[in-house]
Amino acid sequence: MPYDLPPPADPTVIELRQYTLHPRRRDDLIDLFERYFVDGQEAAGIHVYGQFRDADDANRFVWLRGFADMPARAQALQSFYGGPIWQAHRTAANATMVDSDNVLLLRPLEASDRLAPADAALVVATVYLLAEPVSADFVRFFDSHVRPIVTESGAPPIARLTTEYAPNNFPALPVRAGEHAFVWIASFATTAAYESHVARLKAEKAWSDTQAALSQRLASPPQVLHLLPTAHSKLGHGVASGGVHDFDFLAGTWKVHNRRLVARGVGSHEWEEFPGTSTASLHLGGVANVDEIQFPTKGWAGMTVRAFDLQSRQWSIHWISSKQGRLMPPVRGRFEGDRGTFLGDDMDDGRNVKVRFYWTRRGADAARWEQAFSYDDGKSWETNWVMDFLRDGG
Question: What domains can be seen in the chain, in order of their start residue?
Fold first, then answer.
């Protein structure tokens, strides 16, 4: 029988999903995830732990999601895949994929094996496929032989997962059946930390003995996934609440590529593209900042004023266009990891709209801003303007 433990804390069901993609289409799929699918699934009750580029395969995309239990899984998947977000973007997503059926249905071994948000440059998932269901004996072997060595060498497991044997209750999305998987996951703050871990393992004689003993228990060699977190991956960038220095990265001069809907709120898919240059400065020790952006092909400019409320720990962001000269109503919010979400209310061509800004930090020299409007009180969103920032000279 499978290793039997009391149910861990939510979520109790986890999918490890590996997609094979068409050449040069991975970033297209990641863009869809970052724009639409993470928030859409979270709204349906799905916990999206993280999404990753496979460092060893340019055409593989890997991600993890969780559910409270199997009945909740069926309900949440039906809600998302039958809902408007997937229906609107499924054709574009499916066009990137060669195969999406490489899916392990898993559950945490214990409550302590929860996949918490973490800051990491690299996440490593090691998949053991056993000849028989994971037993208490195998768990004892892992915890007494494998775990101490990998922990000492710098890779303490942050989660141990094993096959969930319940039947797939959403057959429209296949999962791998008839396998007995044990998966352990580690995270590394830097790639250098991972390289040091590997070097220490190689130098450890007990590790080669442990590998030999482990191989006797496996049906096939281990699969080791070296995963690079995407910009919005919780497992990789954490969800720490932001603070007064959130926008410090923006100081300086940037080249900006703009992509904007020609017509908003009418179902248009026609976009225009145009350049911009932005210069930002910090004030009051970071509590406030201002940027001015010029659109040379448009003949107008804009300015943003941001202020951080030290009591509420939220930013207020105001936009001013040279075309109107008005201080627009603010959006308010905060950063979690490298992504900031900011919400507000405004008018668009006489219609009440909810406004959403996303700011995504992409290292020291790149960033993205996205604007979306909702015309139905937040039930659905239309992204209408995207700015990609590249530091001038970067």
Answer: 13-237 (3.30.70.100), 248-391 (2.40.128.20)
